[in-house]
Write a structure and sequence with these properties.
Distance between the termini: 48 Å
Largest sheet: none
Shape: globular
Order of helices and strands: HHHHHHHHH
Number of helices: 9
Number of domains: 1
Strand content: under 5%
Length: 258
């Protein structure tokens, strides 16, 4: 009986995940069609760009600076054993631009923005505001989801570039002012080994992660059920789901682009 119960649980969870994936694909299709539908909701998109980009700067700044600082500390202590302290700047720059900048910034934005999207749209769903839009012949996906999707797609690359720069600066401060590394060596090694492709791949990742954050956050909110308790569940699922998908997609993007 335990085996049957276990198989039943696995089958139920698998079907649930497949159902969620199907809903995500359908919503993505509708959003992509809605982007080209006229009139485009420009004002709402600009508002969401401010919400996603500008208001996420504080958390991205703190995350990036201290990530670069920790990288400098860790790589210096390891490279010192081999007399390669001069490569600290290289490791910090490559790590931030290729992986840590896009991934950590996107996860932090998912926690802040993805939860906000799910809570806002979920509240609109349980209070029947979305149904009211439909009765007024307004497409709720075009009005509510498209601006968030486009804004996240545009703003995440900017946030990641900002995070890359601040991470390198944070590593520079620790390496030069705390560990005593030559500032000239740090800068020269960073510029010598850092290529445009390293930065561009991080930007591509950021754009994909932005779409994931907006899609999952809007999906969980748009299809919320169960009143206030359902809004809480949707918010949690939006953050967890977006974070997991960011980590999974990061592997496939890395394997594809590098």
């Amino acid at each position: 009986m335990r085996i049957i119960s276990g198989l039943n649980w696995v089958g139920t969870r698998t079907l649930s995940y497949l159902d969620e994936a199907g809903v995500s694909l359908i919503l993505l299709t509708k959003v992509l069609r809605g982007i080209f539908k006229r009139p485009f909701p420009l004002r709402l998109t600009i508002q969401q760009m401010e919400e996603i980009g500008v208001r996420s700067l504080p958390v991205v700044i703190i995350t990036a600076i201290f990530t670069g600082a920790v990288l400098a500390l860790q790589t210096y202590s390891g490279f010192k054993r081999f007399g390669a302290e001069g490569l600290v700047g290289t490791v910090v720059a490559l790590s931030m631009t290729r992986e840590l900048g896009p991934v950590l910034a996107s996860i932090m934005v998912a926690g802040r923005v993805g939860s906000s999207m799910a809570a806002e749209l979920g509240t609109m769903r349980v209070t029947e505001q979305i149904d009211a839009l439909i009765t007024m012949a307004t497409d709720p996906i075009h009005y509510l989801v498209v601006p968030r999707f486009v804004a996240a797609f545009i703003m995440l690359p900017f946030l990641v570039v900002f995070a890359d720069l601040l991470g390198i600066i944070g590593g520079y401060f620790v390496a030069v002012n705390v560990l005593g590394t030559s500032s000239t060596i740090y800068i020269n090694r960073t510029l010598q080994y850092l290529e445009f492709s390293d930065v561009s791949v991080g930007i591509i990742k950021a754009a994909v992660f932005g779409m994931i954050i907006a899609l999952i956050g809007c999906q969980m909110g748009f299809y919320t059920e169960g009143g206030a308790e359902g809004v809480g569940r949707a918010t949690t699922k939006a953050v967890v789901g977006a974070s997991i998908l960011i980590l999974i997609s990061n592997y496939f993007l890395t394997a594809l682009l590098f």
